[in-house]
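Board notes (copied after class):
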Amino acid sequence: MIYFFVPIGILVAAVVLILAVGQPLLKALQKREAETAIQNFRTQREQLEAKFFDIASRFGKPRDLRWLDCDWQNEVTFGREVDSGLLTAFAAVEIRFEAVEGGDMEDVAAVSTVRDAAALFHYKDGSWGTGGRALFNMNPADALERLNDLYEPIEALT
C-alpha cells in the first residue's frame, strides 16, 4: 500500500518545486528577452520607422487624408501585453497629412495641423514588426498609461 503513496508524494513535490522555481525563472527569461528586444529595436529603428510609414500610409486612415511625412522623436516606451506577453514599443512621432482631392477633408483647415502620435511596434518570434498603427493625440508615456490594463511597463536599458 505504501508504494501507492510514493509516486503521489513525488508528484506533489515536483509540482511544488515547479511553482517555487518556475515564476522567478519565467521573470528572468522575460527580462532577458526584453533586454535583447530593446537593443534590437534601437539598432533597427530607422528601418522600422520606414516600414511603419509605408504600411500606415497605404491604410487610407484617417479617411480622406494622405500621409505626407513622419517626424520621429526620441521618446520610446516599452510594454508587455498582460494577456499574451507580447513586447510592444510605443515610439513618439509627429505626422503630417494633406487632404485627398475631392474628399470630405479638402476644405478643413485643421488638416495641415501636425498630429502627435505613438507609433506601435511589436516583438514576436525574435524580430520587430509593425502593422502601421498609430495612437493619435498622445505621447508614448501617455499611451502606456492609458492602456495600463493591457500593458505592463518595461524599463528600457540605458
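Comment from the instructor: The chain has a mean pLDDT of 87. Residues 2-154 form one domain.
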